[in-house]
């Protein structure tokens, strides 16, 4: 993941603005917009009878449209305090206030998922028996926040209270980042198993060829899956490290600019390579490196779904594909040859539930055009997994190679025009919190004017009911509106609510913890004529609708 080009501080004024934009309460009384629901025909919208049962005959004069579906997510980076916490010396209350501000902004913008970095460098932003506390929380690795609390549990609970998914983002192999300042803790893998970690420039890197390194990553991920009610596991593009030069030039920057280093320093995995050869291994070195990464990807996918069949597994690799398969005119860095990441194979084998290739170039970028790259990855998706590309929103307002907000707006439009792509992920939260050049306001007024459900994942959920049970809903006139009393069936994570004013349908999504909702009368169209409520489960599947007529 490329480091944000602007560091930002969360200001009290911004917190106040977020608080006005979105309520934290589970008792909701929102006024409804007088505009038609935008995005009802988004790519990924569910056809009737596929992701939810059809409306029973005679229950209403008009059946509502299918729910709009689009993954609208944002990466929240903890490494180097890019997004959260803004500084490494905040107390627990200050950290929590910043987290709530981020979540409120995401909710107010009609995002539906947070991808939170929980393991920046073989460390943890949660209490772990395997790895030390991250220094980005307190300034000292191994030191817990004060007063003691569990940041990941806090994020999960607060995200779910706002109807947001929470995906836990792990760096699979990085053991120490260049921005690290404190000494490594005694229980860091570089101290407990130094043979599994290599120095590479200013980094410490877990050697993918050492079984102990891959085992630690697998153990860490599955520990979080077991202990936390997360919606997804996410890993980024750091497999083998981006090659560096003897001068120390940043490999990530060279890769993004499609500049190839002339004197790249090879990763120092000689000992693990020699052990492989001594065991009878026959692969050449590059293929062996790819096999090390492939084995971890497969084990992660299998292990996550063995623990919880509904937890999504997503990967966000570098955005350029294998050179031999690239479309004409696409040039640049090869993750296949340099990071030893065979993302095409992972898609082919169905070892992930969603792919978020980091398409960090403009639509008109010669050699790396956004739309051409997106079409490439869609074409590789034979297993019909989700394709949710990563957008470089942090380029807005950057000191060099600045994006205008229109670039991100247009990229979302291009993505929506492709039936094989059902969403996107912003890198990172900072420009959305800062509303750089008005990007947050533009998205809220346009692409995000209405909410959307996360696309369903019908291949997951072994052992779960086929569809969630219908909710219990009671409606009555109350003042200038219709109030709903809601009670969820087992497994419900949200309610999808369609309300008809005249011949106009409007859509809302509220968390399952909501027990009261007031649908206010429209000044021009009057009282609601029909209301349909569907329960939505954690796989995005909808129940049979409950039809409620306004009185």
Defining key terms:
about 550 residues; alpha/beta; about 20% strand; globular; disordered N terminus
Question: Can you offer a commentary on this structure?
Answer:
- By secondary structure, this protein is an alpha/beta fold.
- 27% of the residues lie in helices and 18% in strands.
- The longest helix has 23 residues.
- The radius of gyration is 24 Å and the shape is globular.
Task: Write down the overall geometry.
Answer: globular
Number of strands: 20
Mean pLDDT: 89
* Low-confidence regions: 2-41, 43-60
- Tell me the strand order in the biggest sheet: 11-10-9-8-4-3-2-13-12
Radius of gyration of CA atoms, rounded to a whole number: 24 Å
Major β-sheet annotation: 9 strands, parallel
Helix share of residues? 25-40%
Number of H- or I-type helical stretches = 15
Distance between the termini: 53 Å
Layout of strands and helices, then pairs:
Layout (H helix, E strand, L loop, with lengths): L11 H10 L5 E2 L42 E6 L15 H17 L4 E7 L15 H4 L12 H11 L3 E6 L3 E3 L12 H4 L4 E4 L2 E4 L4 H17 L4 E4 L15 H6 L13 H9 L6 H23 L4 E4 L19 H4 L4 H7 L4 E2 L14 H10 L6 E2 L2 E2 L13 H12 L6 E5 L1 H6 L4 H7 L26 E6 L3 E7 L4 E10 L2 E8 L4 E5 L9 E8 L8 E3 L3
Parallel strand pairs: 1-18, 2-3, 2-13, 3-4, 4-8, 8-9, 9-10, 10-11, 12-13
Antiparallel strand pairs: 5-7, 6-7, 14-15, 15-18, 16-17, 16-19, 19-20
Helix pairs in contact: 1-2, 2-4, 6-9
What's the short story on this structure?
This protein has 551 residues and is an alpha/beta fold. The protein has helices at residues 12-21, 92-108, 135-138, 151-161, 189-192, 211-227, 251-256, 270-278, 285-307, 335-338, 343-349, 370-379, 405-416, 429-434, 439-445; strands at 27-28, 71-76, 113-119, 165-170, 174-176, 197-200, 203-206, 232-235, 312-315, 354-355, 386-387, 390-391, 423-427, 472-477, 481-487, 492-501, 504-511, 516-520, 530-537, 546-548. The chain has a 9-stranded parallel sheet with strand order 11-10-9-8-4-3-2-13-12.
